[in-house]
Write a structure and sequence with these properties.
six-stranded mixed β-sheet, 287 residues, 19% strand, alpha/beta, binds 2'-monophosphoadenosine-5'-diphosphate
């Protein structure tokens, strides 16, 4: 044996923190990107109980273990922002972070790739919009509203949410109009992009009741729900001959900034990745 054998390099480490976390698709997305370019990387699902203290303890341990960074999912997106020393504009403006990068020159940096991922998705899908209707006013709506107010999108945004006060609050992010929940269908004739940011349409949830007949030809309907992949909303839009973008598309795009920051250099969102995720969803297997 050689006297001073060179230490093999350690794999690059990253992960996703949440509660629950067992069904996250992020490990599969990141492992696929890494395998494609031969990067020695490990991307783990990490559970941290609700509450800032539990989150901060987990994040601290991961940072000390040499994790490059982590994605953050429910219920910790606000905790991640609070934990970080520095935050991107998107994270600050949306009040939430789904990415933490450890040990940078500015300490731990929080970012929001739900916002940048949504933006990239519209650009890649060549969707341009002048009037957008956003349904919902939760965390996902905040990220999407932030994305819509940035160049090159020149869009007038309308928000509709069951709880009006929440709509009024998130509307400030994009200087958006607000329309009462009961009147949401009235905004359809004008919209060229409609985005469902609520959990309506998800398995075991009621579907989102929108009158797709009132949408004009050429408009695009986007749903962040991906279980099922084809929600009733998307089915109805397709039946009208409209273009649709499903929740898996946004999910794939939001993973790209984290992968490039922590693990590798190339992260292609393509049909092969989609097929893997669809197979995993069908088989209930995410790693
Ligand atoms: P997230 O951070 O994932 O967006 P959230 O903050 O709980 O989650 O937001 C969920 C969104 O779905 C909200 O816009 C919520 O409407 P309210 O603000 O009125 O709660 C919406 N939502 C959930 N269930 C709904 C239902 N049955 N009908 C209408 N909207 C619903």
């Amino acid at each position: 044996m050689a006297k001073n054998p060179a230490k093999p390099p350690l794999p690059r480490l990253a992960g996703v923190i949440g509660w629950p976390i067992g069904h996250s698709m992020s490990p599969l997305i990141h492992q696929t990107f890494a395998a494609r370019e031969g990067v020695d990387a490990v991307y783990l699902p990490i559970v941290a109980e609700p509450g800032f203290e539990a989150f901060a303890r987990a994040a601290e341990a991961l940072r000390e273990m040499g994790f490059k960074g982590v994605n953050v999912t429910l219920p910790h997106k606000e905790n991640a922002l609070r934990y970080a020393e520095t935050a991107s504009d998107a994270a600050k403006k949306t009040g939430a972070a789904n990415m933490l990068t450890f040990n940078t020159e500015s300490g731990t940096v929080a970012a929001n790739s739900d916002a940048t991922g949504f933006r990239r998705m519209l650009l890649d899908s060549k969707v341009s919009t002048r009037k957008t209707l956003v349904i919902g006013a939760g965390g996902a709506a905040r990220a999407i509203l932030w994305a819509l107010r940035r160049k090159p999108f020149i869009t007038e945004v309308t928000v509709s949410n069951r709880t009006r006060a929440r709509a009024d609050e998130v509307a400030l992010i994009a200087n958006a109009h607000v329309i009462d929940w009961e009147r949401r269908n009235d905004a359809l004739a004008d919209a060229d992009l409609v985005v469902n940011t609520t959990s309506l349409g998800m398995i075991n949830q009621p579907s989102l009741d929108l009158d797709c007949e009132r949408l004009r030809p050429g408009s695009v309907v986007c749903d962040i729900v991906y279980t099922p992949l084809k929600t009733k909303l998307l089915e109805q839009a397709e039946a009208r001959g409209l273009r649709t973008i499903d929740g898996l598309t946004m999910l794939m795009h939001q993973a790209v900034p984290g992968y490039k920051a922590w693990l590798g250099t190339r992260a292609e969102v393509d049909e092969d990745l989609r097929a893997r995720l669809e197979a995993a969803l069908a088989g209930g297997k995410t790693r």
